[in-house]
Design brief:
The chain is of the alpha+beta class. The protein folds into two domains: 6-258, Beta-galactosidase, Chain A, domain 5 (Distorted Sandwich); 285-693, Glycosyltransferase (Alpha/alpha barrel). It has 19 helices and 31 strands. Helix 18 packs antiparallel against helix 19 (657-671). The longest helix has 22 residues, at 438-459.
Amino acid sequence: MIQTQILQEAPFSPHRLNKYASLHTCGNGRTGIRGCHEEAYTDQQRGMFVAGFYHRANATEVTELVNLPDITGMRIELDGESFSLLSGTLMSYQRELRTMNGELYRELVWQSPAGQQFKIETRRFVALAPLALVACRLTVTALGSDAHLCVSTGIDATQTNSGRQHLNECSVRVFDHNVLQGCYQTTDGQQQAIITSRCVIPSGASSSFSAKNRQLLQHISLPLQAGEAVTLEKFSWIATSLDADAGPDNTWAQRCLEALSAVAQQSYGHLLMEHTGHWQHYWRASRVGVESDDPQDQRALDFALYHLKLMIPAHDARASVAAKGLTGEGYKGHVFWDTEIFILPFALLNAPEQARQLLEYRFRHLSPAQDKARRNGYEGALFPWESAFSGEEETPEFAAINIRTGQRQRVASALAEHHLVADVAYATAGYFQATQDGEFMQQTGLALLKETALFWMSRAVRRHHRLEILNVIGPDEYTEHIDNNAFTNYMAHYNVQTACEYLRQSGHQDEAFFRRAEDFLTQLYLPQPDQQGVIAQDDTFLSKPQCDLTAYKTQQGTQAILLDYSRAEINEMQVLKQADVVMLMHLLPAQFTPHCQAANLRFYEPRTIHDSSLSKSVHAIVAARTGQAAQALQFYREACRIDLGDEPHSSDDGIHAAATSAVWMGALMGFTGLDYQSGELHFRPALPQGWRQLQFPLCWRGSRLKVTIEAQQFTLRKTDARPLTVRVNGLSHTFTESLILKGSHDEI
């Protein structure tokens, strides 16, 4: 059995309720349930989300991922005392997410205010198969004398998205004295959800039911004999109108009852065993192992891969990965550029069919993207900065109120942060490089590449005897409405260049397109390195005054600088949320010399606060690729603490999905120098001091590979005998089953 790390909660603290609710989320890519305690706490934010289940609460709001009715809550009374970790005495406490099988486990001994002691164990998991199943178990033991237990649990539809109610109750019913079912639909009637739950209670227990105030509950009462454990198991079936077998007919609710009945005949333990088998298959296919002098390195990688499994909707191309995955309400569950640039590479090199689905999500929304381009006066496709289910623009018009100025900041991303268009093309090209999936390119990829290329050719304007891209926002969102952003220009150039390459290879006959593209490629202004090798982030950045960022760097991730400066003031200083040029070096390393990459890292890092959760991992990758292994490891470990650290950026409203994936990227693309965007599988190993071995699987053009990197050896094995060519430190090697290169990293 694969033994991955266990993510333990620190000693219980009410101040960390929502941090661990995010970190301890259970899920399967389709459903995510926050790792909240079963008992209620005032500040605890419960959440259950289904990928793609969006709704707009009213005309003044944007669409958001709906927080569905809760099924995990329990009111537990012991001899008339309500169980709470805020009352009585906590004698012992253990709570952990078992990442090897996705089970959230808690065991504690609690002494009630009356002095009676009880051992309480709670367990839950969201099944990998069937995807609609959620299983929970409660075990209570009276440790002193006999006692009495009362449990109330069921389906709680009082859940909202931070006060916004999305669902109407259609019906709530009790079947056969042991099954609860609630049928709900969004207030516009467009989406439906059916939640069915059944409690398996021990003999001697009595139960009753209530349905009021949007809560359908079962109330269970039973005696506790001293020293004897009593167990209650609860199984739930989460169905939505997105499911393939959903339908408007009257049999849907009945089918949900039958599906739940079939699985509830089995015990929690048996279902967990099957569930664990599915997780073991995932870990064998995907796990990255590191032998390090710091066990936190492995812990971070396991955490990252666990959550990557939870966030990618492998079951449905109509959904993509939200900025917080399915772990919270942050960013309203919207899809950003993060998916294509940070999350898709993991899917591509581990389960390429999932990467294809993430691109098909964009292709399904090509028409709305074309409409947005036309509305803004452009050709081709302009994808929304924030996307949900429909493919329409979902970016809010205003951000939060600036507490220094009292003004609401208008969000300009939807109007000017257009690099997303090139990011989609970049991911499309990378997918084909890694898979050689010709069918995808013919049916999907070529259209994405051509429409995104058309956008850039219409977006550029002729000025100063060249083509320029004006009034944009790069990934660095502290610098707005600038001209000739280096990241945007280079990525747009790459977009058009790859579109031409693949369209020509496919026999595309649109000569007018090719002539126009060639003019764009030769005329587009690409900022060049100066004598020191530095590329200007945009036309005006280098002429702006510098600012001492020392104090803000110690508070990175908090946007503390906004307490001292308005966004308009920050825009006129050399202050970066994340460094666009460093990001560019990460994505297109073949276009820049190692000297140029190192020069830009050296120049821009002192000007970067790292308020973006993506910043440190990218710096780690570029530092590793330029031979600065010690600095790379420092950046990497700081990136690993984005969610796992004692003072994370903020995980209360969900983990940082892209930053989580960047932990995987930092290890592989940084310390192994992995690159595939140019069409070859390329490694440039650079293990940092303290890392003795790094081992990981890859999927490349239909072959399953196992890579092992040690200080004096590089080993590449695969499961088939087809010849494969890879480049290691620039040298080409062709092999069939295994490749072993001995020597130091520089000598290989």
